[in-house]
């Protein structure tokens, strides 16, 4: 089995992640923040250690690290919890449905007006498009850091500078960049960062992070037990408890902590160079029958074949034991922007565990199609 679907979820996981997840179920089975007995204390220690590790990793205070079920949940909390009624919102045309659908739902509800800027060009063109669409009533910007169809990376730090200049909160979708591209909340001017645990950070599925800038307090989407202020009718004002109703996924958090530590030990730049080298090798080896969309110098390569549909190629590769993703990848606006066509594209996405030999094998199979 060769796995090239890492933009969906990374696999395999580091052995440390698997061990930490299992150990949490064995020895820290209490409910963190819900008791003062040894098992609850052990669970709370894991939770806070993960907050600290994530805070250091992304340039934020531990108390500003909120656990969610994943990047989609984090984006929903940020978008629905931070954008005021009547506001104008900017978002890019490479976005995932986790951004597009909440924004368009709020627009249909008459709560906001959402407007896209063009993220398909060079850095100067992206910044010009973004700047030209800022209005006095612009209440937030929701920006994709890295595309999930190609290796396009948006200039988040410069967009963050523009947002600071205009007093606009910046919400960043880091689903494809967290753990692969350096991010610093303060340096990059980010108000809310949505992070999956199971992709670049190599943690288990079922846990994600919403990391908030200082003073950023979204309205909660989920309401219930928070472990503090139990006599109050409303959720507490304190972050992170305000946004963490219910029981946290402790085993997944333990695995995420191990994943963050593993990525830190390998080094983001080392991982990035490795994945980029594989992407360039793969894109450069595709035959003339294939069209590559967008940059192919990061972690993701999207392509189509002149004769065969993406679905047909995906099925053929699966029969050979190679896992890729085909179709529209929950990002219809990005496919329209890149011009992939009515069937979407084949997506090959790399992780730290992929090898040049694996790239050689998929290229050998694809070259038969020329």
What does this structure look like?
This protein is an alpha/beta fold. It folds into two domains: 15-265, Aspartate Aminotransferase, domain 2 (3-Layer(aba) Sandwich), CATH 3.40.640.10; 267-367, Aspartate Aminotransferase, domain 1 (Alpha-Beta Complex), CATH 3.90.1150.10. It has twelve helices and 13 strands. It has a seven-stranded mixed sheet, with helices on both faces. A four-stranded antiparallel sheet has the order 9-10-13-12, covered by helices on one side. The protein has a two-stranded parallel sheet with strand order 1-11. Helix 1 (15-27) packs antiparallel against helix 8, helix 2 packs parallel to helix 8 and helix 9 (268-285) runs parallel beside helix 12 (356-367). It starts with a strand and ends with a helix. The mean pLDDT is 94.
Helix and strand layout, with pairings?
Layout lengths: L1 E2 L11 H13 L10 H21 L6 E4 L2 H12 L4 E6 L4 H12 L3 E6 L5 H10 L5 E7 L11 H11 L3 E4 L11 H4 L3 E5 L11 E5 L37 H17 L1 H18 L4 E4 L6 E6 L4 H10 L2 E2 L1 E3 L4 H7 L6 E5 L6 H12 L3
Parallel strand pairs: 1-11, 3-4, 3-5, 5-6, 6-7
Antiparallel strand pairs: 2-8, 7-8, 9-10, 10-13, 12-13
Helix pairs in contact: 1-8, 2-8, 3-4, 9-12
């Amino acid at each position: 089995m060769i796995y090239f679907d890492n933009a969906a979820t990374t696999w395999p996981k580091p052995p440390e992640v698997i061990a930490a997840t299992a150990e949490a179920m064995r020895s820290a089975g209490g409910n963190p923040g819900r008791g003062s007995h040894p098992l609850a204390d052990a669970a709370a220690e894991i939770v806070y250690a993960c907050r600290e590790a994530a805070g250091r990793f992304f340039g934020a205070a531990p108390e500003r690290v909120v656990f969610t079920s994943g990047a989609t949940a984090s984006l929903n909390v940020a978008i629905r919890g931070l954008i005021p009624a009547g506001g104008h919102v900017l978002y890019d045309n490479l976005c995932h449905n986790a951004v597009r659908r909440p924004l368009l739902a709020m627009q249909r509800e008459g709560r906001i007006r959402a407007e896209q800027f063009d993220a398909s060009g060079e850095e100067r063109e992206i910044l010009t498009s973004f700047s030209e669409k800022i209005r006095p009533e612009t209440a937030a910007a929701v920006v994709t850091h890295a595309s999930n169809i190609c290796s396009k990376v948006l200039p988040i730090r410069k967009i963050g500078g523009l947002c600071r200049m205009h007093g606009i909160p910046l919400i960043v979708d880091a689903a494809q960049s967290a753990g692969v591209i350096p991010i610093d909340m303060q340096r990059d001017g980010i108000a809310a960062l949505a992070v999956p645990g199971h992709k670049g950070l190599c943690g288990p599925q079922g846990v994600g992070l919403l990391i908030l800038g200082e003073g950023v307090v979204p309205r909660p989407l989920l309401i219930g037990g928070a472990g503090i202020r139990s006599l109050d009718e409303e959720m507490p004002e304190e972050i992170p408890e305000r946004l963490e109703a219910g029981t946290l996924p402790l085993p997944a958090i333990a695995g995420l902590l191990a994943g963050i530590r593993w990525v830190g030990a390998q080094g983001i730049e080392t991982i990035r160079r490795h994945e980029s080298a594989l992407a360039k090798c793969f894109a450069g080896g595709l035959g003339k029958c294939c069209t590559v969309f967008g940059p192919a110098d990061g972690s993701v390569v999207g392509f189509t074949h002149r004769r065969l549909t993406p679905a047909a190629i995906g099925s053929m590769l699966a029969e050979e034991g190679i896992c890729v993703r085909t179709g529209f990848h929950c990002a219809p606006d990005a496919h329209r922007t890149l011009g992939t066509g009515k069937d979407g594209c084949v997506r090959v996405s790399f992780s730290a565990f992929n090898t040049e030999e694996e790239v050689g094998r998929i290229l050998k199979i694809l070259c038969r199609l020329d």
